Amino acid sequence: MSVYSVGCGLGGKLGHGTRTDEKVPRLIEQFQTLNIQPAVVAAGAWHAAVVGKDGRVCTWGWGRYGCLGHGNEDCESAPKVVEALSNVKAVYVATGDYTTFVVSDDGNVHSFGCGESSSLGHNTAAAEAQGNRHSNVLFPEVVTSLKQLNERVVQISLTNSIYWNAHTFALTESGKLYAFGAGDKGQLGVELSANQTERAIPERIDIDLS
């Protein structure tokens, strides 16, 4: 698979080593340099990610809140391997508004980036009860709350919202759908308690997608 990009180049999010706009689709050549054959591509609002056939993960673009997973908030204008996932073979990646999720072949889900609205899934039930939000995550962390479902997650869907109402959906192998993150407008599809505006741990939605 070859990957092309076009449009706004702010933050280097097109992946060509510059921050200039591109008016016609241009091949991202960095994958050849890294000897990576792209298999899965995800484009968020401000950054992008690729999973290679060998399971390596590359990210680039705006690095705000740590959404690139390199341990800082620097921008990367060309695809860069996420070294913190070097011991993981990824099979799927999803990007949102300064958030990134990676699914590995062992069924684990890793997330990193902006922790607003609890959309990364790292909060505990105790923290949720206290109304706490998880801080930003600069390196990939296993989403323990999804691991505790004892079901393999096969797909993640994120919002590209810039209004801090980000939320996340996780689809399991058996067709069950879980949601977490901001739910103030009913966007999670689950019932929240009084005065609760977000869900920190995954809640199953009453729908069967098997």
From TrEMBL:
RCC repeats lie at residues 1-54, 55-106, 107-174, 175-210. The keyword DNA repair does not apply. It comes from the Eukaryota. Keywords: Repeat. The keyword Transferase does not apply. This is Putative E3 ubiquitin-protein ligase HERC1-like. It comes from Solanum chacoense. The lineage of its organism: Eukaryota, Viridiplantae, Streptophyta, Embryophyta, Tracheophyta.
